[in-house]
Write a structure and sequence with these properties.
The protein has 16 helices and five strands. The protein has about 475 residues and is mainly alpha-helical. The chain has three domains: about 140 residues, N6 adenine-specific DNA methyltransferase, N-terminal domain (Ferritin), CATH 1.20.1260.30; about 200 residues, Rossmann fold; about 90 residues, no CATH class. The protein has a five-stranded parallel sheet with strand order 3-2-1-4-5. Helix 1 packs antiparallel against helix 6, helix 5 packs across helix 11 and helix 14 packs parallel to helix 16. It is elongated, with a radius of gyration of 29 Å. About 10% of the residues have low confidence.
């Protein structure tokens, strides 16, 4: 029987059990069973190469000891073993000493796990179907990984506020744009089922992982936290399926409970990839862990403040947001990536960044002399800047390439921005840049006259006429 058919059979058997109610309980039940089978298959493989290896799961509770025999215990005896022996033992594992990290992973998975099935016969049938899958077989494991993604996708109807699953097209795109590399510390502070982690690993394995040392470095650089028990269990299982030997970096907890000020240089990371829960409210008192200007019950806003705090200088982040926070304000975070020295800005939505007390107009911060505004680089059609190219040279190149007539709105926006800045700081624009701007205006005027178009005041030689 194929892996896909085995999974379908397992799901149908669980639907017939009176104790399993809904997708979330069915997937939770499947997950702890898959977890034990995957761990045991990997343990048996490691024992072949390392006689000294000791499984994190005690003897008698390993999958091979009670589940692998198709004619093994069933009915009430099986239910009694699972409920009164297996679960209490795994929930109470000691995490100190040698192998403590791996035992801690097992304990964290089972801390909030439950056996929902009430029929021992149906459970035995499910166990026998899971036994047919060999997770040491690379082909079967990859096939199961694809099916597991579909199981996680089913959680879109089981979770609230997007808390469980981010579509893989989104996570893969964001990982590709951020371009993580082995050795760069990568954090997902609200990891859910681990989609950003798996896509980041796939990206690095495709581009950068060439040796076993690269793989080890990549796995050692991952960090993740998940608050809720079900997605945490799903994430740990997901990591095992994707070749992570020790998923102890996936911590079960709430990132926001630690005071904002306690995060120091040792906690900073190179990359943050995450989809923080939106529309939800944190428990009472969580916002008091943050400085006054950040305090809000909106979970996503708290995460965004913390992400900026956690990034190293030069760090980068990609975050899924339901709505903009700054609405285009470039200067809200003067001290980013440290999250220090917030500039009050009237464009920002309270209470995340308070409005200024004075009614003075907002003055944009001048760019360094000779720099090229980012919006011009993105919209003028020329692509990346040439080496040592300044604003004057770029506008001249835009004129020569006949791109100005096709970017009138862009040029108007840039010229308006540069003129506004110049009014507040005459030294911002050099004489060469002033000539370049006027030259660009001349090209636009000539083109507009040929097209018999009316020019806005901004582009006229004598405004108001």
């Amino acid at each position: 029987m194929s892996v896909r058919n085995a999974i379908k059979t397992i799901q149908n058997l669980m639907r017939q059990d009176a104790g399993v109610d809904g997708d979330a309980q069915r997937i939770s039940q499947l997950c702890w069973m898959f977890f034990l089978k995957i761990v045991d298959d990997q343990d048996q493989e490691r024992e072949l190469f390392d006689p000294e290896y000791v499984s994190p799961i005690p003897k008698g509770r390993r999958w091979r000891d009670w589940a692998s025999n198709p004619e093994g215990i069933t009915g009430d005896a099986l239910l009694d073993f699972v409920n009164t022996d297996l679960f209490p033992t795994l929930k109470g594992l000691e995490v100190g000493g040698s192998g403590g990290e791996k035992r801690a992973v097992v304990r964290s998975v089972f801390e909030d796990a439950y056996n929902y099935m009430k029929s021992g016969q149906a459970m035995r049938q499910v166990i026998n179907k899971i036994q047919e899958i060999n997770f040491n077989d690379l082909t079967q494991r990859q096939h199961f990984g694809d099916i597991y993604e579909q199981i996680l996708n089913d959680l879109q109807s089981a979770g609230n506020a997007g808390e469980y699953y981010t579509p893989r097209a989104v996570t893969a795109f964001m990982a590709d744009r951020i371009d993580p590399k082995p050795g760069e510390l990568l954090l997902d502070p609200a990891c859910g089922t681990g989609g950003f982690l798996t896509c980041s690993m796939a990206h690095m394995r495709k581009r950068y992982v060439k040796r076993p040392e690269d793989e080890a470095l990549m796995q050692a650089s991952l960090r993740a936290v998940e608050k809720k028990p079900l997605p945490h269990m799903l994430c740990v299982t997901n990591m095992l399926l994707h070749g992570v030997e020790n998923p102890s970096f996936v911590r079960h907890g709430n990132t926001l409970t630690r005071p904002f000020a306690d995060y120091g240089p040792a906690d900073r990371v190179d990359i943050v990839l995450t989809n923080p829960p939106f529309g939800g409210k944190e428990e009472e008192g969580i916002e008091n862990n943050f400085p006054t200007q950040f305090r809000t019950r909106e979970t996503a806003d708290l995460f965004l403040a913390l992400i900026i705090r956690l990034l190293k200088p030069g760090g980068r982040a990609a975050v899924v947001r339901r709505r903009p926070v700054w609405r285009g304000c470039r200067d809200a975070f003067e001290g980013a990536p440290y999250g220090l020295g917030l500039n009050p800005c009237p464009h920002c939505r309270p209470p995340f960044i308070p409005k200024p007390k004075s009614q003075e107009p907002f003055i944009p911060k001048p760019a360094p002399e000779g720099s090229i505004p980012q919006k011009l680089r993105l919209l003028d059609g020329l692509g990346p800047s040439l080496p040592d190219e300044n604003l004057a040279q770029r506008i001249q190149r835009m004129s020569r390439s006949n791109l100005i007539p096709r970017n009138v709105a862009t040029c108007m926006h840039i010229i308006r921005e540069m003129r506004n800045v110049a009014e507040y700081n005459a030294k911002t624009i050099s004489p060469a840049e002033t000539l370049a701007i006027e030259g660009a205006l001349g090209v636009i005027r000539e083109w507009a006259q040929e097209q018999k178009l009316a020019l806005p005041d901004l582009l006229k030689e004598n405004p108001g006429k």
